[in-house]
């Protein structure tokens, strides 16, 4: 009994929350018959009585209400007629409950001519209502019995209902009879063999042990033919309504098994599908009674029926006319089976993505062609490479730079910052802090460099060397910079109308480890030389730079890294310089290019720079900060700038000139001592009298005669006039000003120079994408470890998961295992996507350097990165693990369901890839990003619906489920599986259970059975959302700031 109560709860659970509709018994006519008078009804075939409540016990279809009827067995306490207890039997040639299904053409012909219809036509008297009878029906045409599933006018069918779930509750025989009325005017005996409904209608009754339990009606029906093979038919109807007969076995005879609320609320669309007649089958011809609630209870096939028999008495002429129009009927039938709204929406989204990609490709090709023809703004990049006669010079005036020592929160909690050097220099350090907590790094540094001049910037650690070169190179800085920087023509000193190409070489070498030297330089040439430059000229430029830097012998050697040996440190430094030289910079700025090199390698680098600087055909300004040069290295520079604590102690000729300058001021250099070491000794001793000389030197640089020989070692008076003139252009800082004592007024700011001209890159977007994709392909081919690891793990885990859930059954426990298998796959993809975050963290320094160098747009880099991460590391492993698991676990064998399953997992993998890329772009600390991503995955698992039913989550937290992609993924996978027609076949306490997996899915997990395409659209929305957020993070967050 407990099992019966459980099964009853399963049947009633989906509908207990739905309001009951008014019962049809309030009507005067049962069977949805047509009322004739307030007290009589026009009954459907097989029923009679004032309210059409009495079923026919024998007779034939054409006898109408004159047929013998089974009477209620009131003496036995049964309010309804019982065909079995009344010993009803059909005449030969008729079958079905009510004896309405013809079996031979002879009974149709004979009984029709014996009916009162022909008596009336012959002139006899009859009380039969002939309303709607047309002249073509009075002719002497043969009447035949159509026993196919197709209906020509109005056909009857009778089927056994042998559903295990129903039989466990109601073990006796259940039968369903259905009258399908297509064209009532074409029936042989209108208003008797069919009711004159205005459109195609069905009338159905379910019988249990010979007693009618409930009756249904649906209208606006369409008949589709050959939908499930030749001879099959499918009826689609709307406006379904059903009425349960109170007190019947299904409708309250046993209160615990009362299905009234379920039956009376059946509504909406009804489908009756029947196979072709198959007499050889052990279960006879099969049909299905499909409605949304029934599909939840019994599966996608609805209420299945067996041993169906069809019978329709119809004129042969009607059949002949219909068969002559078969093609049109089939066409109309096929057109009625349109695509669902979800399929259309999904196809629209996919089509929009494909169209956007094609439009982007077409635009890229057009822009690339336009640029290569010189018709676009990229031609200005070529103009930036053109140097005026005599080269380009550089000058800067009164550069100052300050950084804040405390944040807003620190100021609130601690007040004023403490001095950085609390020991002996505490007082002087405190003087460097203004009221806003800013520290001066540079103090009014000025200088002028003519074309073809090589300048060394010397000073001890912390003197400001790196800050000077970064400001002159236009690098993005966190602090506040003020001053003027401008470029002038070496021929006449006139200011340039645009910012020329400025090359910058950082003190650390960040290069692609898997590329050769030639490929690295060619990569830079393709992206940094103008699009108008032919490919052959770019290769020639690379060949020229290789020879110029002495790298021809290692041109085809990979650069290597700390894990894999490649070229030497000196050669690596020359490659970094070569990446700038291929772009033909007008000014080359280097930050400690010789640090970490031995004296021989350092001299080779310096010799290359000197040859570049003093090239007669192309003189170039070269500025380099040098940490501790040897005597040989020092002699290669034309001019020297000496910095100490952010101030200029000396700027003038190199060689022995600085030693003579300081010897005249009381700091002679010992005989044979390295002049560079002597200058560093002076700059490293802030307590010495040398610092007192700084104002004199600075005064000389600002046009004052600071003493003997000062003019010889500082810019000329003409140069000083240029420095004091209005700058061209004036540069503004990108940060809010800090009140810096001793700095120029806030109106004179410093704008960072740009490596590109007029806001455009040298190469078009499509060229950038092609070159970046080429590098990604080379990296993948030359280092297959990551791809091989992903593929191997996918195969191993696929076999493991498939073995764990091998051939899951269709019991309740097996269904839970199926959902567990799907959940495990989603969780596996969630954590394997963490490698995308790590990949971006590793490549981040190279991207920052190349973006700062103006190589490419961040969008082009991001697109290439996503493509070459998603395809080999996400899609391919996902296909392997999914395919192996899917077929080993025994999921739905339909190919369509498999590809829909695969689509969901690929979309989910793409969502997680973009999400982890976003975290990697936001957080520079890879450990924090991985931690937060792992926590997000745990939150997804919590709200996915597997561990906890979604409807039981407290409302304050329930909304979080809508932010979890795994929830939509698991729901779509589950719906795809159960909508394949999966039925649960199990036994509870010895009682067989045969229910739809949709019902179990709804009860256990709360998933909607029609949500597959909605979930697809939501995953696409996640892809779009994370993609937009990622682009924004890369553009505004993932950028070099020093």
| Percent range for β-strand residues | 15-25%
Strand arrangement across the biggest beta sheet: 8-9-10-11-12-13-14-15
Enumerate the spans where pLDDT stays under 50 for 5 or more consecutive residues: 1-27, 120-140, 326-338, 408-435, 689-749, 751-759
Number of helices, where a helix is a run of at least 4 consecutive DSSP H or I residues: 33
How many strands in all? 26
Overall pLDDT confidence: 78
Structural class call reads alpha+beta
Biased composition (Basic and acidic residues): 714-723
Region (Disordered): 703-753
GO molecular function, one term: ATP hydrolysis activity
Domain ABC transporter: 420-670
Task: Write structural notes for this entry.
Residues 420-670 form the ABC transporter domain. One of its GO terms (molecular function) is ABC-type transporter activity. Residues 714-723 have a biased composition (Basic and acidic residues). InterPro entries: AAA+_ATPase (IPR003593), ABC2_TM (IPR013525), ABC_transporter-like_ATP-bd (IPR003439), ABC_transporter-like_CS (IPR017871), ABCG_transporters (IPR050352), EGF (IPR000742), P-loop_NTPase (IPR027417). It is a single chain. With 1042 residues, the chain is an alpha+beta fold. Among the domains are: 29-89, no CATH class; 93-114 and 140-323, no CATH class; 765-1037, no CATH class. The chain has 33 helices and 26 strands. Strands 8-9-10-11-12-13-14-15 form an eight-stranded antiparallel β-barrel, surrounded by four helices. A six-stranded mixed β-sheet has the order 20-21-22-18-23-24, with helices on both faces. It has a three-stranded antiparallel β-sheet with strand order 17-16-19. It is elongated and about 140 Å long.
């Amino acid at each position: 009994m407990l099992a019966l109560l459980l099964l009853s709860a399963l049947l009633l659970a989906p509908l207990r929350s739905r309001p009951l509709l008014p019962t049809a018994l309030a009507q005067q006519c049962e069977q949805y018959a047509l009322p004739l008078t307030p007290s009589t009804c026009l009954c459907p075939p097989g029923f009679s009585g004032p309210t059409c409540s009495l079923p026919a016990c024998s007779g034939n279809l054409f006898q109408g209400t004159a047929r013998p009827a089974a009477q209620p067995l009131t003496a036995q306490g049964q309010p309804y007629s019982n065909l079995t207890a009344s010993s009803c039997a059909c005449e030969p040639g008729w079958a079905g409950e009510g004896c309405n299904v013809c079996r031979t053409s002879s009974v149709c012909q004979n009984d029709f001519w014996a009916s009162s219809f022909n008596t009336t036509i012959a002139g006899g008297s009859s009380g039969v209502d002939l309303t709607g009878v047309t002249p073509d029906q009075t002719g002497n045409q043969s009447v035949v019995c159509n026993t196919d599933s197709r209906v020509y006018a109005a056909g009857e069918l009778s089927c056994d209902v042998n559903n295990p779930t129903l039989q466990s509750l109601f073990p006796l025989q259940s039968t369903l009879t259905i009258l399908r009325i297509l064209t009532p005017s074409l029936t042989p005996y209108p208003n008797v063999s069919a009711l004159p409904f205005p459109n195609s209608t069905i009338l159905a009754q379910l019988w249990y042990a010979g007693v009618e339990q409930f009756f249904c009606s649906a209208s606006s029906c369409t008949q589709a033919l050959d939908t499930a093979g030749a001879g099959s038919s499918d009826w689609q109807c709307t406006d379904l309504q059903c009425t349960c007969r109170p007190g019947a076995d299904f409708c309250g005879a046993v209160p615990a098994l009362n299905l009234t609320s379920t039956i009376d609320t059946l509504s909406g669309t009804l489908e009756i599908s029947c196979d072709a007649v198959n007499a050889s089958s052990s279960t006879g011809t099969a049909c299905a009674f499909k409605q949304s609630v029934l599909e939840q209870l019994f599966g996608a096939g609805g209420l299945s029926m067996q041993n169906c028999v069809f019978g329709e008495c119809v004129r042969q002429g009607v059949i002949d006319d219909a068969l002559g129009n078969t093609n049109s009927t089939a066409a109309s039938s096929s057109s009625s089976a349109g695509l669902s709204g979800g399929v259309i929406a999904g196809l629209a989204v996919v089509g929009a993505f494909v169209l956007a990609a094609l439009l982007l490709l077409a635009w890229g090709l057009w822009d690339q062609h336009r640029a290569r023809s010189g018709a676009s703004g990229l031609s200005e990049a070529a103009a930036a490479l053109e140097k005026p006669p005599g080269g380009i010079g550089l000058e800067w005036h009164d550069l100052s730079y300050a950084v804040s020592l405390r944040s807003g929160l620190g100021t609130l909690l601690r007040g004023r910052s403490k001095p950085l050097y609390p020991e002996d220099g505490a007082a002087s350090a405190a003087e460097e802090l203004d009221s806003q907590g800013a520290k001066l790094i540079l103090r009014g540094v000025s200088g002028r460099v003519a074309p073809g001049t090589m300048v060394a910037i010397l000073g001890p650690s912390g003197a400001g060397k790196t800050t000077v070169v970064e400001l002159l190179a236009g690098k993005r800085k966190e602090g506040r910079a003020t001053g003027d920087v401008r470029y002038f023509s070496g021929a006449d000193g006139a200011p340039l109308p645009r910012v020329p190409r400025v090359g910058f070489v950082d003190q650390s070498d960040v290069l692609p480890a898997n590329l050769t030297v030639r490929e690295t330089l060619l990569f830079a040439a393709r992206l940094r030389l103008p699009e108008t430059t032919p490919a052959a000229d770019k290769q020639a430029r690379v060949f020229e730079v290789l020879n110029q830097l002495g790298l021809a012998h290692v041109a085809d050697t990979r650069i290597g890294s700390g894990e894999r040996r490649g070229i030497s440190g000196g050669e690596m430094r020359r490659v970094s310089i070569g990446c700038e030289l291929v772009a033909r910079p007008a000014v080359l700025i280097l930050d400690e290019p010789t640090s970490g090199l031995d004296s021989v390698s350092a001299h080779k680098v310096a010799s290359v720079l000197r040859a570049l600087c003093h090239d007669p055909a192309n003189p170039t300004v070269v500025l380099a900060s040098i940490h501790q040069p040897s005597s040989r290295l020092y002699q290669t520079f034309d001019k020297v700038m000496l910095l100490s604590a952010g101030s200029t102690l000396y700027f003038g000729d190199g060689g022995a000139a600085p030693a003579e300058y300081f010897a005249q001021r009381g700091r002679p250099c010992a005989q044979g001592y390295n002049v560079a070491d002597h200058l560093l000794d002076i700059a490293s001793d802030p307590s010495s009298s040398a610092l007192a000389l700084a104002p004199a030197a600075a005064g000389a640089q600002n046009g004052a005669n600071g003493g003997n020989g000062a003019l010889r070692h500082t810019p000329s008076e003409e140069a000083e006039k240029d420095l004091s003139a209005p700058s061209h252009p004036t540069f503004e800082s990108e940060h809010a000003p800090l009140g810096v004592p001793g700095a120029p007024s806030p109106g004179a700011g410093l704008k960072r120079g740009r490596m590109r001209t007029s806001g455009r890159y040298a190469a078009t977007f499509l060229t950038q994408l092609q070159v970046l994709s080429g590098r990604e392909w080379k990296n993948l081919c030359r280092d297959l470890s990551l791809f091989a690891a992903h593929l191997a793990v996918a195969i191993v885990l696929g076999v493991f998961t498939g073995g764990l859930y091998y051939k899951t059954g269709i019991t309740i426990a097996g269904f839970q295992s199926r959902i567990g298998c799907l959940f495990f796959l989603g969780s596996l993809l969630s954590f394997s996507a963490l490698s995308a975050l790590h990949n971006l963290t590793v490549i981040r320094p190279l991207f920052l350097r190349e973006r700062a160098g103006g190589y490419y747009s961040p969008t082009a880099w991001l697109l290439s990165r996503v493509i070459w991460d998603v395809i080999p590391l996400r899609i391919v492993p996902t296909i392997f693990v999914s395919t192996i698991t899917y077929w080993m676990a025994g999921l739905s064998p339909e190919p369509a369901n498999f590809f829909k399953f695969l689509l969901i997992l690929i979309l989910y993998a793409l969502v997680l890839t973009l999400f982890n890329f976003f975290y990697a772009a936001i957080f520079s600390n890879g450990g924090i990003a991985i931690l937060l991503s792992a926590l997000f995955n745990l939150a997804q698992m919590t709200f996915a619906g597997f561990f906890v039913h979604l409807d039981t989550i407290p409302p304050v937290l329930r909304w979080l489920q809508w932010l979890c992609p795994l929830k939509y993924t698991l729901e779509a996978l589950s719906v795809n599986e159960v909508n394949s027609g999966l039925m649960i076949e199990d036994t509870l306490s010895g009682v067989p259970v045969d229910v739809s997996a949709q019902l179990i899915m709804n009860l256990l997990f709360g998933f909607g059975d029609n949500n597959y395409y909605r979930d697809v659209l939501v995953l696409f929305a996640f892809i779009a959302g994370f993609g937009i957020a990622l682009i924004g993070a890369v553009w505004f967050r993932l950028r070099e700031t020093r």
